[in-house]
Amino acid sequence: MFSENQSLLSRLIQNLLLIIYSIFALFPLFWMALITFKSDLQMFNTTFFFTPTLDNYKAVLIGTDYIKTFIDNVIVSGGAVLVSVIAGVPAAYALARFNFKYKEDLAFTILSFKFAPEILVILPLFMIYQKLHLYDTYLGLIWVYQLITMPLLIWVVRGYFEDISVEVEQAAELDGYPWYSVFWKILLPLIKPGLVASALLAFIFAWNSFTFSLQLSGFNIQTVTVASLRYIASDTVHYGQMAVAATIAALPEVILALLIQKHLVRGLSFGAVKG
Amino acid sequence: MANIELKNVTKSFGKKKALNDISLQVHDKEFFVLFGPAGAGKTTILKTIAGIELPEKGLVKFDGEIVNLVEPAQRNVSMVFENYALYPHISAYDNIASPMRSPLYKKDEDYIKERVMKVAALMKIDHLMDRLPARMSNGQRQRVALGRCLVREPKVFLMDEPLAHLDAKLRHFMRAELKEMQANFNTTTIYVTHDYMEALSLGDRIAVINNGQIEQLGTGDEMYYTPVNEFVARLFGEPEINIIDAEFVLDGGNKGVRLLNQIKSFDIPEDVYDALAATGKTQFHIGLRAIDLNFSFERQSEHDIHGQVYSIEPIGNKAVLNVDVNDTILRTVSPPDLNAEMDSDIFVSVNMKNAMFFDAENHELVVRHNQSQYTKAVK
User: Fold this and answer.
1) A165: nearest CB among B79, B83, B98
2) A210 contacts A117 by C-beta, under 8 angstroms
């Protein structure tokens, strides 16, 4: 009896702590969502009680080309992840399976793209892009986003390939499968958790990217992170409209993360073949 | 059904030579065993035949046709891998069915089901068909892997230690089963093992591999009775063969060999004497199997070697009795219920008729009694 009481108590404390933490974590989001319904007039003199209005949504979605920037962002981020998957999976396979000179140096160089600050390379890139006419194009942004998405994908997927023993592939070959079937039927299912998780994470990083799209685009193509800045005018800041832009920008990430959170945790923490 | 031939095959991994000029021929429908210590190159030979590893030099032939450039899938071989190489994401049933679902060896699902269940019953894994490999024991995985190999009718079965992870009882059962199956299937089998009992009981012929080279190639009896060198002699038999220094004594009345600083020399058969004398050397190594050493606790003859009981290791139906003679340990077998005090006196007699003589320098076999009788048994 006593132990049951104790476990009840500990459960209570656990839940209490979790509730406090979730309030702490979710409150900014809640606050942002709240602001979207406030008019500029009530922005600073009310907290929870105000006259809700949809004016901000109207202003952002109809009054500006926010929807276009949203679509631009989907094209650029989605395209970047797609290119990373198509080019990165074979690269990861090669790094996992084949032995060639300077293999580890190459792998490290790819990883190093990830930890060099973007601001470090942005000026030369800007000038190169001007010369190559890549400035302000989808291709240009998708290309430069590879710096964000590719290293992550290659390193996670490489680990998955390394966990699969070579003999499994050889056995499939002897069973009479051509190499592309070996890849589709044997390898792809085994690397799927890692591929899905790293592709999603890469998508989120690309989606959130600010520096590259600020510097390398802006007229024809604009991403939501940059577009959100437009609501800072010279005389006033439209916090309400900015909040709408940010809320809508955050939605796809939240939805995607919720959909595959199971893969996300498993995919980044476990290898492919257990036991 | 195929003749497999390797001709001067050489293969290195980095600086290490895995196979060094290997030539061998496996006859049609033969059960051929590759036997040797770990890292000898046995698995590499199998993979070379399968086409997974490509030789740097030399030819691989199936039925006289060079297949060096034929893709593994097109060679129609079936292999059991030492680490099972099961597909982790599909069930045991699908694993075994996999070769029959490939574009190359496509069969209809009814046929597949019948074949898989037959093999599963044989392997005693029919209750595991829905399970993923991760939820099986090593022995069960190994049987699934063996099933996936046997479900097809290839030109040659390549088996890399397929029984190594089974428990002893199951291993004996499967050994008999494999032998039986091989007779029925009429298929060439190349079998890798490091267990000499498997090699002797299964192999029509055995190749002993060491350091990427073939030490000896022949039948089990040849390996056991006329090993070409001390290395091969040591590999076969449990307990390990006793190999000790022997001095060849030529002087008239006392001709024979002297062992272990004994005053009396041992008489040796005439043919052995002639062969030893022909070498012109006096220092040899003598190889004596444990069963050729008899012991008693009282002196039976003046030739008996006096020693002390060193240890007794019971191994089921017999025991290994180690006898210490002037700091040399002689291994002999005794009944399992032998009662002997440690360090008590013991007398060992030697059956010289079965002794093998090796060159003391290059460790190669010089002679044994009635040698031709053992080697002519080649089929």
Assistant:
1) B83
2) no
Q: State whether B81 and A170 contact (CB < 8 Å).
A: yes
Distance from the Cα of A94 to chain B's closest Cα (Å) equals 17
In this structure, are residues B50 and B74 in contact, taking their beta carbons and an 8 Å threshold? no
Mutate to test the interface with B, among A100, A165, A175 (most CBs of B within 10 A): A175
Question: How far apart are the CA of B17 and the nearest CA of chain A, in angstroms?
Answer: 18
Q: What are chain B's domains?
A: 4-231 (3.40.50.300), 233-375 (2.40.50.140)
Query: If DSSP codes are grouped into helix, strand and coil, which group holds residue B257?
Result: strand
ipTM value = 0.80
Tell me the residue length of chain A. Answer: 275
pLDDT tens readout for residues A148-168: 899 999 999 999 999 888 999
Span A177-228, pLDDT tens digits: 988 999 999 999 999 888 988 998 899 999 988 888 888 887 888 888 888 8
Q: Which of the four CATH numbers 3.40.50.720, 3.30.1490.20, 3.40.50.300, 1.10.3720.10 does domain A56-269 have?
A: 1.10.3720.10
Is the Cβ of B103 closer than 8 Å to some Cβ of chain A? yes
Mean per-residue pLDDT, B140-150? 89
pLDDT for position A19: 95
The runs of H, that is alpha helices, within B14-137 are 42-50, 92-101, 109-123
- Please check whether residue B275 is in contact with residue B366, taking contact to mean a CB–CB distance below 8 angstroms: yes
